Each structure stands twice: as structure tokens, then as C-alpha cells.
Batch of 2 targets.
Target 1
Amino acid sequence: MRALAISILIVASCLSSAEAASAKRGLVLAKERCSACHAVTGHGASPDIKAPTFRRIAGQWPVEQLQEALAEGIVTGHPGMPEFTFSPREIDDFLAHLRRLRGR
Ligand code: HEC
């Protein structure tokens, strides 16, 4: 547990502070809008077992594709979910959070 905390600190200190602040806002967004179904942080299972964790999404999806999907509003793959769209600024923040989950 301590080793994990230390490695998180090292990763965090490698990010510029602007990027870190952006990622933090992205995490807040993800918690507000996505965490009812998805695991949005670096650990834990998704509340909806059908929803992939954001760790997995971060590892699988090219960032540009996600950017497009977020700008257009993700509708596909989301039965029962109200349509949502992100402003360009929110998308930057959200992707900063995903890059952080991906570990770079
Ligand atoms: C009401 C529950 C719910 C909410 C809220 C939700 N999702 Fe999902 N999401 C799902 C489910 C379920 C799937 C898997 C769908 C499938 O595989 O058929 C999914 C899949 C995804 C995928 C992968 C799509 C694919 O085709 O592989 C992405 C990306 C995604 N969600 C992003 C988000 C983001 C970003 C938010 C918040 C803005 C969000 N989701 C909010 C339920 C939800």
C-alpha cells in the first residue's frame, strides 16, 4: 500500500501542475456524470458490471476517438443513459484524467 502511494506520488509529480489540475477537474466531471455506472478512478469495479472501467477505456481507446465521441455526445453503447455532451474545455480535462489513468 505504501509502495503504491509512493508510485502515485512519483507519477503525479511528473505531470506539469497545469496538467495535474486539468486531470483533477476531469476526475470531478467523471464522478459527476459517469460514476453511476463506470469505475472512474484508478481502482475498483464498475457499479454496472456491463460498463467497462475507465482504466480499461483509457487503455483501449485512442484519445482522438474519445475526443470525437465526447464532443458529439456518446449515445452508442449507452442504453438507458441520457445523452450528454462535453464542452471543449471539459473534454480536455476529461482526457487529462484518462491519460493519468493510463499512467503517462
Ligand atoms: C447509466 C449507466 C452509464 C453511465 C451514466 C455512463 N455509462 Fe458509459 N457505458 C455504460 C455501459 C453499460 C457500457 C457498456 C455498453 C456495452 O458494452 O454494450 C458503457 C460503455 C462506455 C464506453 C465504451 C463504449 C464502447 O463502444 O466500447 C465509453 C467510452 C463510455 N461508456 C464512456 C462513458 C462516459 C464518458 C460517461 C460519463 C460522461 C459514461 N460512459 C456514463 C453505462 C453508462
Target 2
Amino acid sequence: MRPAPTGRRWRRLALGALLACAGLGACAESADDLASGPVRPAPEGAPWQTLVEWRLFVDTADQVPNDRVVPYEMISPLFTDYAAKHRFIWVPEGEVLGWRDVGPLAFPVGSILVKTFAYPVDARAPALGERLVETRLLVHESGGWKAHTYVYAAGDPDPTKATLKRGGTVVPVSWIDADGAPRSFGYVVPNENECAECHGEAPSTQPLGPRARQLDRDSDYDGVIVNQIDYLASAIGFDQPPPAEADRDRMVDPFGDADVATRARAWLDVNCAHCHSAAGDVSQKALWFDWESTAPEVARPVDLGVCKVPTSSGGANCERTYDIVPGEPDASVLLCRVESTVATVQMPPLGRTQAHVEAAALLREWIAAMEPVGCD
Ligand code: HEC
Ligand code: HEC
């Protein structure tokens, strides 16, 4: 993935735009100029029709954020068909973030969260750039969060033409993966109702990613490696000082070097817990994957699916009996549903059309390493 854009770079670009303006006089009206000036929130209930009108980027093609638009990365990101993602936070001037130890940080009304989905031309050669697919926004209005997505025109070299798409669409994407294999498939842009299936129905729509435990990692800001919590504290500010680094609970990289059970927990949390948790839609199934519920000191094996008979009527079971059979990945419903790409079987049920092969391998290793207990 492209390193986080640096502040130095956006300052240079912003200055370029300013000088161009000074020379052209009435350039405030021109489309080009929408890329200069401060972030421009839309009136409530009337999102801009094009992405460029928000002025979130000074260079959309390179995803160079505007002044005060802060890039961040997740410790454990959501899998979306191998798309690369660029994430940003914008908070109105003079406002701060509300610290939360567990849930998403509290964002003041007016805040905008941004996530762009892109595919590298060739994952082995980042310099060849990326093809941008969509930029999703969560906008905090006084009545709650609003979800919107802007889709980049296929084959159009001008990314500033990304337009609001409420009804979803399928975008053909082709790229060369990290192993040099050509990949192509129809990337599914969700419709606005589908945003709610993961982020919650209005007026309870919520951000999912920016939690302290997910942000508590290093990132490259302006060529300097900084802890993201520290960076947010200085760039935006918190309503209270965050706990000392040693006292903070942080997730692990699912493909890093922590033990396999902790890595499986981190992957399940971000990919499954927005539905499978006490707060999520399928809470009654008591299959809970949020980081708190899966902590070894609180987890009941059955809540993780261990020797649990699937309760969902009409849910696919792959002709297997239990969600997890310790020691037996190939007898476990959970693994089959993660490996599947059949719409009626796959988990998560939306947000992907491709299998996350590396995650399936991780869950296989996790289940295989569990002490066999004999479910029957
Ligand atoms: C399959 C579930 C799912 C669907 C569908 C979904 N999201 Fe998300 N979204 C997530 C998760 C999980 C995260 C946090 C993880 C990450 O960013 O990697 C996230 C992150 C985001 C972010 C960054 C801020 C945040 O909350 O973390 C934005 C903005 C966003 N989504 C907007 C949208 C919009 C708009 C739609 C509909 C067009 C949508 N999402 C559909 C699950 C989903
Ligand atoms: C968008 C919401 C959503 C997400 C995200 C989601 N699920 Fe589900 N899941 C459901 C629903 C609804 C059901 C019940 C219907 C069915 O079985 O298809 C279910 C059922 C299941 C079942 C059968 C459970 C039982 O005991 O009845 C398993 C196993 C499962 N999910 C695993 C996962 C895993 C693993 C993930 C993450 C990779 C995940 N799910 C992500 C909505 C979701």
C-alpha cells in the first residue's frame, strides 16, 4: 500500500494551487479550484453530487489530503476483496475527539470519515500507481451519521469526476497481485442500505474502525514515524489525555507475529463483530466475535462457536454439525463459511465476492491448534 501522504507534499500542492489562483483571478468558479481552499462540508441532508466538492483532497489521484484531513491506518483492517484502502478523519476546526477506551472514538457533529478503495496496477510495483474505485464517507450530521459513496468513472483519467452513487454498482477491476498473478472480477459497490447492514440503521449509524485499540500503531506522517494516537492528540486533540501507552489495550496484526488465537481474534473482530456481537444484528445467535467477548478471560467457548450447533433457520451449514469442532477445521461450519464465495453461504454475507485466502489459512491453523474436546 502507498505510504500515508505526507504533510510536506500537500503543502507544496496547496501552494501550487494558490499561485495558480493568484494568476488567474476569478478561478474560485473553476472546477479545478474545488481542490483548493478548506474542507467544504455539504448542507445537512444534501450531500455534494461530486467528491471534489467536499475538498477533502488537494490531489485526488494521489489521495493527498487537504489541510487538517488526517490519514490513519488500522492495526487489523476489514477485508474487501484485496482492495487497498486510504482512510482519513476530518473534524471541524476548534472541535476535539472524545476518548473512548473500548468503542469508536466520539466524533463531534460535522466530522467526516473517509475511506477510499483502490487496486494497484501491479502490487509488486507500487510506483505504477493505483486505480481508484470508490470513496466512502460517513458524515456526522446533527441527526446522526450519514453514509455516502462516490464512484470513480472507469477509464476516466480524471478522478475528480467521482460522483455520488446511492444505488450501488459493479465495477470491473483488473490488477496484478503480489504473486504476479493477474486478477479480475466485478468489484461490488454497496448501496446505501447495505452500508447500514454493517454500520447500523439510521439514526444509530456508527463508525466502526476508529477505536483506540485499532489506531494504536505507528504511521508515517511527513516522513516521521509517529504513534497514531499521539499524532491525533496533537493534530486534532482529545477531550481528556489518553491513558499512557503501556496501559492501553491494543489489537494485533492478524498476519503479524502474535500467537495464532490472538491473531484470529483480531481478524474476527473487524470482519465479523459489527454483526456478531451483543450490539450487532445477529446477537441472538450468541456467536460473538468482538475483541472484548473473545478475550481469553471472559470468552465462553460456545459463544465463539465451539461445539455450537448453528441456530439460524435457513443458514447454510455446509453439511457440518458445529460452528467449530476443536482440532477439526474441515468439520467446522465457520471455516467453510469463511472459505465460501457462494452468496448464500459466505461470511461475511456482503462486502466481498472473493475469498480471503490468508484469513482462511489463519482460522484453519487456529481451529487445528485447539485442544480436541469431542463435541458429540
Ligand atoms: C461488510 C460490512 C460493511 C459494509 C457493507 C460497509 N462498511 Fe464501512 N466499514 C466497515 C468496517 C468493519 C469498517 C472499519 C474497518 C476498516 O476501515 O478497515 C468500515 C469503515 C468505514 C469507513 C471509515 C470509518 C469507519 O467507520 O471505520 C467509512 C467512511 C465507511 N466504512 C463508509 C461506508 C459506506 C458509505 C458504506 C456503504 C456504501 C459502507 N461503509 C459499507 C464495514 C462495512
Ligand atoms: C452483515 C452481517 C454479518 C457479518 C459481517 C457476518 N455475519 Fe455471520 N451471520 C449473519 C447472519 C444474519 C447469520 C444468520 C443467517 C445465516 O446463517 O446465514 C449469520 C450466521 C453465521 C454463522 C452460522 C451461525 C450460527 O451459529 O447460527 C456463522 C458460523 C457465521 N455467521 C460466521 C461469521 C464470520 C466468521 C463472520 C466474519 C468473517 C461473519 N459471520 C460475518 C450476519 C453476518
